[in-house]
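[scheduler] slot 2 assigned
[scheduler] job type: sequence-to-structure, two independent chains
[scheduler] chain ordering preserved from manifest
[runner] begin chain α
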Amino acid sequence: MLPSAADYVIVGAGSAGCVLANRLTEDPGTSVVLIEAGGKDSGLNVRIPLAFPNLFHGPLDWNYETDPEPACHDRRLYVPRGKCLGGSSAMNAMLYVRGRPSDYDGWADDGATGWGWADVKPYFLKAESNSRGASDDHGADGPLHVQDAKSPRALNRRIVDGFVASGVDRNPDYNGPRQDGAGMFQVLQRDGRRWSAADAYLHPVRKRPNLSVVTHGQVERVEHDGDRATGVRYRDRKGELHVIRANREVLLSAGAIGSPQLLMLSGIGAAGKLRQHGITPLHDLSAVGQNLQDHPMLTVLWAVSETDTLYGADKPRRLLEWLLRRSGPLTSTAAESVAFWRSRPELPAADIQFHCGALFYEKHGAETYDGHAMTIAPVLLTPKSRGRVTLRSPHADDAPSILTNTLHEREDVDAMVAAIRMARRVAASGPLRATVERELRPGSEHESDEQLEASLRDRIELIYHPVGTCRMGAADDPNAVVDPELRVRGIDGLRVIDASVFPTIPGGNTHAPTVMVAERAADLLRGRTPLHDASVTTGVGA
């Protein structure tokens, strides 16, 4: 029987919501209701690492897309978001990347007091169970299993060698003291299968008597009494309305698209725009939905003579190998090797992350190639462009309007063009020269900067890292939605705890930072003194 009230009501069982549900219910006297719009995270496509593209556009995907992007030839860019227990961690590529210390010191410098590297590093370590063991840079006892790839393709190590031959340092641990360099990805897996936030945090505690989990619950708005949040209203899969009261607080963990949408549906946002949709403003907070950031990605593709690639990984014998031994190509995350690189030497940190793999990966895996291939995909880590999320209608089941303004800024374009040229240099290097047969995308006909820019605007995609739409900042910052304790400005009893609070996007994949935010938020909610690493020297390490 679902309770009518709980101490905390959490909206969204994704990377952050699963962490909160676990940590808050460690105290038997604290009750939690966790509401998820999707259903269970079951099925082989969730469990098998290489099957993640099969989840795109399916029932476990919110299946968002942007409005026509002016700087991308008016194309709509795909924004997949997980709609099940585990959220996007149940359908991502499982790559474990924290970002740079300077990312978090920048958050603190911009008003997010208490979120510098010395403050957040202990929470990365607390969450992590790294197969390499404990060290000053890694944890070994946390819920998140972080491992080296179980069955990597040998071509990926030659790709790393190609980066080294092209002037990039070899770096076996990009989550260690420095990020720059080339090496192999560590992945969020356990024994060759996906290890999502639900696997790590939620499923082990589902039977706690103080935790109730609602699936297929579409939250429509936050309920309030004056300027205090009192609970949430949601509709179940039968269409019936329910209200769950929060005795202490409502915690929005619906992600960088869902959390600002729910705030606006609840009357918290730019008052004039809310009135246009017939919503009575509760609190005029114009920053809600602004500051949207994501990492743009372009795949550069070659046909190769190497036969040990992921081509044919979907054959029945490969599935049997995974089912029996949890090994083989299906344990791959598609991108197995990585390089962090500066498009200009004077930059303070890498602005490009190359995701590399022994496969053909185009249009989010929807386009195929009949043969062996290699991908070196530059990703822009520090986009200058900013977008927004706004309401399209006053109904929770209507997707909001999303615009990223990808490639709007000249600096972003120049960095990506330079990265395409670097990818070509790596492919032509000694370690890969005998393997690479011909360039498939963008193709040898694109040679000048102008031609590469045109191809970039025509093919650029996003790499599934939306953040920033409920920006964290100083309590008096008009461009901040939440304060450094993640409380929504002007509303009591309401916090946002997910990737939407990131002031700026970190230099890497965003799952690990989202888990970190939720781990630290749980301590704030429980009134515990936040962890701090006094040994960290601020500003050391890019």
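[runner] end chain α
[runner] begin chain β
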Amino acid sequence: MYRAPVSDLRFVLELLLDAAQLARLPRFADFSLETAVAVLEEADRFGSAVLAPLNAAGDRQGAAWSETGVTMPAGFRDAYRQYVEGGWPQLGIEAEQGGQGAPQLLVGAVEEIWCGANVALMLCPLLSRGAIEALLLVGSPELQKVFLPKMLSGEWSGTMNLTESQAGSDLAAIRMRAAPAGDHYLISGQKIFISFGEHDMTENIVHLVLARIEGAPGGVKGLSLFLVPKFIPDAQGAPGARNDLRCVSIEHKLGIRASPTCVLAYGDSGGSVGYLVGEPNRGLECMFIMMNAARLAMAFQGIGLADHALQQASAWARNRVQGRPVGQQGAAAMSIIHHPDVRRLLLTMRAGVEAMRALALYAALQFDLARALPDSEMRRAALLRGELLIPIVKGWCTEYGFELVSHGLQVHGGMGYIEETGIAQTLRDARIATIYEGTTAIQANDLLGRKLGRDDGAVIRALLEDVDAELRDYRAEGDSAALPAILAGAREALSGLKAATASLLPQLRSAPAAAYGVGVPYLRLCGVVLGGWLMTRAAHMAAARLGAAGDDQAFMRAKLQSARCYAAQVLPQALALSRTVRTGGGAIAEADVDLI
């Protein structure tokens, strides 16, 4: 049974990232570590007692489509009701909007817990949060007054509608049309791959839809964003007449089968009533508000599922008795956790999960600092660093997360391929995270084109200099015999990332096709090295607390063990990735596509 990794989340918040610094800022004056711990423990209770028991059953039953709508699996509506009644939708909403004002650092930790417990169900409120944020930032006062109260409470859910059948990731090819009709627009066209575009857990669904106003320019510069409700609110704000939109079908998917992925048709009978959000022809800017929130949430999804797989694999390895491990005396068989390669798989999983968790929460912290620091330049620097990290954590935590889930299946051996053990579902559920909200290549393109390209790498160089300065401050010797090797591995990997960055930046200008040909390896290199930096910090903190009264000594030893494994088993990948980035672009850019 899944249980939240509360101890490690507390370590990251309390020690690794010093979340108490937020409480010293006026914006988060009501935040405290004691409150954060209480929230994590309650999220664990809700995740383990309510969400996790529905996970396998929801996968088996799946969401069901009919001409009248989509029915969620048994128990999902009640679980969502408990989520709403518990006040969870307001956790990260500002106090002036009726929320609890928790920092994104804590919101991200909670999202990881619930994605680990039941990702299919929790995709609904995760998407709603992005829609809420977009309305808060660019929605008109009239739209905010009508739609936000019910969305903030969780009574109404939200979606984002980008993709069309002829326009996957190429948003410039969007054909959805919007015709002016007085104080609103009539929306017509079809969208695909709309998560929770139709379901029966909320009384209304608010769709944020990219469309092109008649006469608008071609390409992405002609796209506008519209709010299109399933039911048009009446004068009292209650769901009124059914809008002219319908769910044509839901996809039959590899994983997250309890999450309905919908084909939505708008305007079959004349046009769906939609309301402009933000300014005309600036819809993509508005949509990126939702996209960034969703991409960070996807990072936590990858981590949560990897941690779930770690729990499944660890339990299996401790109970599965088979064979006598190498180096063990006697004839008795032992549990497979004693076999060297099973230990390698489990340790690699644990180390990888801890590194990804630390980096994703570090990224979330940057957005909190960007909102709360008193100095405007410091706020801007934090925002730019957070934006730089978004594609890295989304791409790395989902790709590496899936790889670690695959390790978990491998620990199970042949039984992992059998649905009854549960790990097969975790693998299927994890696969989509590398694809939606932008594939890993799209994240890499964003990292190179929008983040490195906009300032010629100034933000990433500043981050790497900060990392370098911190690593130089650590002693080569220390409170544990493991520290020198951990520190040496982190420094060597950082040197490789610096060299790759220095090589890539001029290539972006002189040979962009070659640079983009190594974009994904560069993104992974960033994740591996930055994860290693934070694992090195964690190792030094754990070593300093060995023998200290009041600290969990077993936890600190385990943290050192994870950091040692990461330095020995994962960080060496940085050397190969750095070489790929520095020398491998031409092999891609100059390839003859007819020979592929």
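[runner] end chain β
[qc] chain β: The radius of gyration is 24 Å.
[scheduler] slot 2 released
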